[in-house]
Amino acid sequence: MSRTMVFxxxxxxxxxxxxxxxxxxxxxxxxxLMDCVTDAVFWVxxxxxxxxxxxxxxxxxxxxxxxxxxxxxQYLNLEFLMEVWLQHWETIKQKGSLYFESLxxxxxxxxxxxxxxxxxxxxxxxxxxxxxxxxxKKRQPESFQxxxxxxxxxxxxxxxxxxxxxxxxxGSQLNQVFKFIESNYNQSIGLRDVAQAVGYSPAYxxxxxxxxxxxxxNHWIIKRRMVAARTLLLETDQCVNQIAEAVGYQHEGHxxxxxxxxxxxxxxxxxxxxxxxxxx
Length: 280
Prior knowledge:
Elements: H1 3-36, E1 40-44, E2 50-53, H2 55-61, H3 65-68, H4 79-95, E3 97-105, E4 111-123, E5 126-135, H5 175-184, H6 191-198, H7 202-213, H8 217-235, H9 240-246, H10 252-263, H11 267-279
Antiparallel strand pairs: 1-2, 1-5, 3-4, 4-5
Helix pairs in contact: 5-6
């Protein structure tokens, strides 16, 4: 081998070594910066296998870094995230990211409100998901919170000629949920029907609606049916079984029990009392 070739080889090896050292330095710096971040960060393959976690992620789920790097997210107490991962990976790829809020149950049994961002990444033809989870320490007042924007049972006070106002909170990220209920409350619908219509799992939707309104999905369905029932009791002479069917109940007895539970009286008695008040 000539002296020139040996020299060139040494130069090449030195350059490779310098590049490797620089990459390792940048990688260490990246890990250091990520460990300074208070958000829990997971780097995950499309099959949900964990590739990297920061210190905050270890603290959140209660496992060491070594343990987590041998796991997939389905083995963690992150059911809400696994549901999103399985159902919406293609959406994440198309949109580039997905943001949602949910409740995380710690190993100690506490339920923490968290906001999660999943970002799609691709490097050298390989796909990754970067998951960032942040605990919601203090929520700002929102227009859809009941204590700031109470819903109104308007049927008792409005006149037949007045337009019926919506009972649902306005300006909410739950608009699609309430829109579906408004359009279908007079059908035999339940939690699963609403969840399917808006693209969420029943468990996730239950958490979402309860967190934003303090009530369940079924509560809002019943509440809307009760408003419609009161309107029909006031403005028509339909009998109770006709009204029950008109507002989405398959059995008159079910409607009767729920009406009495919500109003502490029967539909017949409520109608009689309201009409007496109207004529007095």
